[in-house]
Amino acid sequence: xxxxxxxxxxxxxxxxxxxxxxxxxxxxxxxxxxxxxxxxxxxxxxxxxxxxxxxxxxxxxxxxxxxxxxxxxxxxxxxxxxxxxxxxxxxxxxxxxxxxxxxxxxxxxxxxxxxxxxxxxxxxxxxxxxxxxxxxxxxxxxxxxxxxxxxxxxxxxxxxxxxxxxxxxxxxxxxxxxxxxxxxxxxxxxxxxxxxxxxxxxxxxxxxxxxxxxxxxxxxxxxxxxxxxxxxxxxxxxxxxxxxxxxxxxxxxxxxxxxxxxxxxxxxxxxxx
Length: 273
Known about the structure:
The chain is an alpha/beta fold. The chain has helices at residues 3-6, 25-34, 63-76, 97-106, 135-152, 173-189, 198-202, 219-228, 243-246, 249-258, and strands at 9-10, 39-45, 82-89, 111-114, 118-119, 127-128, 193-196, 232-235. The strands form three sheets. A four-stranded parallel beta sheet has the order 1-2-3-4. It has a two-stranded antiparallel sheet with strand order 5-6. It has a two-stranded parallel ribbon with strand order 7-8. Helix 5 (135-152) runs parallel beside helix 6 (173-189) and helix 6 packs across helix 8 (219-228). The N and C termini lie far apart (42 Å). The model has no long low-confidence stretch (mean pLDDT 94).
C-alpha cells in the first residue's frame, strides 16, 4: 500500500538533542518526504531552563539552535512539506506552565504534545513513574498528572496515553479505572489520544497474560477510547530519520481499524492566550 495513502502527517519526532535519538534535522525532513508525508512536526523532549536530565532531554543551551534549525527547514522545504515546531512535554503543574506558555506565545512554537514519562514531586528531582516503590501509586500519580495537564489547555494531543502499561504491566481494575478517567477527560477537552508506533518497532511487550501484545498501544485502552468517543491520531515517535520509511504504517492503521477507530489526518493546535 502507498505510504502516502496511509498516513500524511506525523507530529511526534525527536532529534539528536534529547540524547537518545540520531540523525540531523534535515535528514528527518528528507526521509519524511520520501515516505510521502505532507506534514512533519518536530517534537523533541522539552528542553527546560532549570533542570538538566542528560540522556532524556537536551541541555538548555541547545534551545535556540533547535528553534533556528526547524525554522530554517520550514523555509527551505516550503511547498514540499509543512513543518511545525513543537516539544513533547511532561506536566509539572505550576513549575513550568509559564515557560510552556511563553514557548507558544513568544518563542514561535506551533504546538506542544503531552508525553508523561516522569514527575517532579519535590520540585527538584525527576522521578519516573516506573521507579515508584509501589506500582499502583505510580499509576495514580501518572493519571493525576495527565488529567491536570489536559485542564491546562496547552497540549495538542496526548502522546502514548497508555504508556503506563509499559511499567504497570497488568490490565486490572485499577488500569481500567485510570484509562476511563483519561479517556473521559480527553473527550471533555476534545484532545486526541495517540496510537504510538514506537513499541511496534522496539518490540516491547507487556507482562500480561498474552505476551504477544505490545505494552502500548494497548487494545483494551483503545477499546475504552472507542466507547468514550475519543478522537485518535497516529504518532511515529521517530528517533531516527529512517523510521519514517521502515515503520509499519499498515500495522498501526489495522490496529485502529480493528477497534473501529478512524485516526485523524491532521491535528488542530489549541489557541493559547
